[in-house]
Amino acid sequence: MTGLRPAGTIGRVSSAGEYEYVPLRIPPGTSRSAAAQLMSMQSDTGGWELARLQLHADGTRKVIMRRRMRLSYLPGMVT
């Protein structure tokens, strides 16, 4: 397949209104606790919060993180 990002990648940051959003893809086989720890690190280091979480049939998790635009001076997503 063409045009797909590798698993575990962070997409482009986009903004809408007073929030900025960033997609995060967590590969299949990642435990629930490891995924929660990854999202917790994003929250602690960059002010991100969980906006949406989708669990796909193949085990891949698609996460949308958001933060307020006024926090834009904080660092980006930790990769």
> What share of the residues does DSSP label as strand, in percent?
25-35%
Termini, distance in Å?
24 Å
Assign an overall shape: globular
**Gyration radius over CA:** 13 Å
Descriptive report:
It is built from one helix and four strands. With 79 residues, it is an alpha+beta fold. The protein has one domain. The chain has a four-stranded antiparallel sheet with strand order 1-2-4-3, with helices on one face. A hairpin with a 2-residue loop joins strand 1 (14-16) and strand 2 (19-26). The protein is globular, with a radius of gyration of 13 Å. The relative contact order is 0.26. The model has no long low-confidence stretch (mean pLDDT 79).
Keywords:
about 80 residues, alpha+beta, 1 helix
Structure described in brief:
β3 and β4 (61-68) form a beta hairpin.
Topology of helices and strands:
Elements: E1 14-16, E2 19-26, H1 32-46, E3 49-55, E4 61-68
Antiparallel strand pairs: 1-2, 2-4, 3-4
